[in-house]
Amino acid sequence: MRFVSEFRDPATGKKVLQQIEQQLRQLGHDASHPLKIMEVCGGHTHTIFKFGLEGMLPPSIELVHGPGCPVCVLPVGRLDDAIAIASQPDVIFTTFGDTLRVPGSQKSLLQCKAEGADIRTVYSPTDALSLARQHPQKKVVFFGIGFETTAPATALTLLQAREEAVSNFSVFCNHITIIPTLEAILADPSLRIDGFLGPGHVTMVIGLEPYTFVCDVHKKPFVISGFEPLDVLQSLVMLLEQFRQGRCFVENQYKRLVQPQGNRVAQQAMQTVFEAREHFEWRGLGSIPHSGLRLREAFSAFDAEKHFAIPAQQVADPKACQCGDVLKGAIKPWQCKVFGTACTPETPIGACMVSSEGACAAYYNYGRLSTSRKLEATR
Amino acid sequence: MTSSKDTEHPLFQRIEGVRQRTGRVRDPIVTQAHGGGGKAMRDLIDDVICGALGMSAQQIQEDQARFSLAALAQYGDRLAFTTDAYVVSPLFFPGGDIGKLAVNGTINDLAVSGAIPLYLSCSLIIEEGLPMETLRAVLQSMGEAARAASVHFVTGDTKVVPRGAADQLFVTTTGIGVIPQGLEIAAHQLQPNDAILINGYLGDHGAAILVARGELQLETTIESDCAALHGLIAALHDAGITIRAMRDITRGGLSAVLNELAQASQVHIAVDGTKLPIRPEVQGFCEILGFDPIHLANEGKLALAVPSEQIEQALKVMHAHPLGQQAAHIATCRPTPAGLVTLDTGFGGERILEMLVGEQLPRIC
User: Fold this and answer.
1) What part of A 52-81 touches B (C-beta under 8 Å)?
2) Which end of chain B is more exposed for a tag (fewer CB within 10 A), N or C?
3) Domain holding A159: CATH number?
4) Cα separation of A241 and A255, whole Å?
């Protein structure tokens, strides 16, 4: 399969791994002083575990799984609001599939559906708009979640809805943005990260420029990476090369998709439709200023938060859960007190266990073999 | 009381003639009358169901099918008995339909025990309003699948439920087969060094159904692999292959089957990801949606464990059969870590292969 299989070639992978090992040795890193690289995006976490990269990399490098899984960071309170909207009469609540199992304070959307709510999985917000056209007597709500990867599609759908004056369509907007999130992570004194793998798909939209503060202010190299295993390994080589040469820049490994200026049409659509909220609550990370998007006043006719009575209660994360520490890379998933005992993919307590891209679920499902072997080796 | 003189009256004879006539169902849709236990239901059974399934009116005069034990005993020394309900949406999809699925699925559940499948029942739950043509087409397909597999429908039941109480048509089939003497196939019998073989491409059925639902707006040429596997299994048996364990790979995909086998036998199953036969179309479909073909459903695939010295012979037999042309040796059993399934990712890494918790859900980005 073109553009996929050539980025999964094991022979090339082996060569790149040797290069990584050599670079790490030259930099003086070993198992007791590993280089810590955070992958910001959940898609990278998925690749790392799906292809077993964590087990292949030498112990002198540690991958920290960052906050870039939008399903994981959705706070309980917002999920309760979604369930409240979905439970109202004459509502068709549409959502991407992976939010269905995320636990709210009482129940998940999947349980809500089983109790009788009309909740439908869609693959794009335009599907939700089509449903609104087909069911003019129903109120169709789209659960907008995700970073700048999915936000432009929501924005373009809203522009379309306005043009057609579809009056029974609205969006429950929970879109988030990457830059304030990175700022919050970098401002945390407990964080120890040497460099970043940047999110390929988000950058395809926003371009390279917004990340320059990571290098200029915080002195951390930042490499935008694709999502195949060789993409990830090559990006690590590029980071290591920067360390070796004492450079610190935003670099683009994912050139086959990411243009330096991003996608202007998508940026324009987002600019027209959304504005930043003062604060937005993240599961595990708390409130982060300007990190959430809401619909502008001009689109209030399509804003589900204005149409429906929602509880809008802030719900504290479960006490036992250490998702915040995991998301910031302060602890490894298996170091959390409830990991694998009270918190499992069947009964997730914390956000990181819910989605397959969550760091804890990835460890639980895929990674415990390499983790246990590495722990065994260091003992 | 009517005397014989009464029944000789021409009017009586005319009506009696009509009463004896086998009813022809002319209604365009199924209504609740067809499930009411009266004449309309008898006509439905006579005209729509029995003929298509190859049952004679005489066969269904009684409320139960009856078998001669002696006749069954000539096939083997144990009965195999299984039941399965089919609720697929849409009813028709590329490569099959609910009827074909209901016949082949139950045959496969019998066959993976080594049993020779013999008899089936057919139980229908019909939502009122189902087009009669749809029902006829499903039953036609069931009859064809049963004839092709040399199994016989011997009993059944029909219910019609109000609109909304079922989704068009649910089909339950129950099957009886006989296991030949000396054949012992069971999930707990895997031993270290045993090889796991599968008979072909993974994920075709799951992908075909998801595309056929029309929600994805994807166009593919993927067809369901729906097929009866007892012929392939008989060929392996005839060639003297020792089958330690065998499962048909349905819901939950290969990962569910391998986890069940590893748990039951307390062995480690190491899968070679590069050996998994997956069509490029299915792989592409999965790449787009964030699915893994290893979790997708199949309806004509099986996994079997054979001793390592029989790998080549077993593959040869499978490759020679129309349902085993892409057969492959995909995994090997090892003593430890017991109960675990791991996958060599093909990129040099290894990961655990877990059973899914619920349904596979598409990823958002």
Assistant:
1) 52-56, 70-71
2) N
3) 3.40.50.11740
4) 18
